[in-house]
């Protein structure tokens, strides 16, 4: 992960601000928490990396399906890593359709995104936004924003959607996942979506280009690389598949068939 930015306020009406990736993501999924600079930047990115906006929507389709599945299983607590802005049917909104008292802790490393997200959820009981590096699992779990919102003696669903491919070191990624999962009791879940270049040469090119500071080159992995992350968990449904096509009932296609560019998996602690 990256070093935390200094905490500073973000003025949503300040069109001179540079593009913000969380707001670009919000624009891609049809949200309104973005500025003209983000919309223009999104169009530029799609010229360099065609389908980037579709990737954002595919991550959201995956997380929505997972939250619905966990809610049906009785899970009413969620920890989302690399959460961005809680907009457009985000976790607490979707979960509370089934469990009105669902509790959610969001984690993001970008200070401006966190300040914006906190304004969006202000007044929401049982919802917090933590400014932290999701790769520092011990710090995340020990923070008041998590420990005072989530009861780790009960099942929790951990969403690592579109975040672990920014942890370049394989050992560090595995260690972070294990710290999170070791804290979970039976009945808890883990969901991962992760970029892959399977059937997507453009994603391989994007991962190896000079990003110039506007975003961060992802580390592409395949299921064999990530399988150790699921130690102690049983895979739910179809296993590693195209993330936007994941459903709890198998079968589901892989990204080599759909060219989604995303692996997705859901696992459960028995």
Automatic annotation (TrEMBL):
First-tier enzyme category under EC: transferase
InterPro entries per UniProt: SAM-dependent_MTases_sf (IPR029063), SAM_dep_MeTrfase_SAV2177_type (IPR006764)
Keyword Metal-binding: no
The keyword Transcription belongs to this UniProt entry's keyword annotation: no
GO molecular function: methyltransferase activity
SUPFAM superfamilies, per the entry: S-adenosyl-L-methionine-dependent methyltransferases
Keywords of this entry: Methyltransferase, Transferase
GO biological process annotation, one example: methylation
Descriptive protein name: SAM-dependent methyltransferase
Protein's organism: Actinomycetospora flava
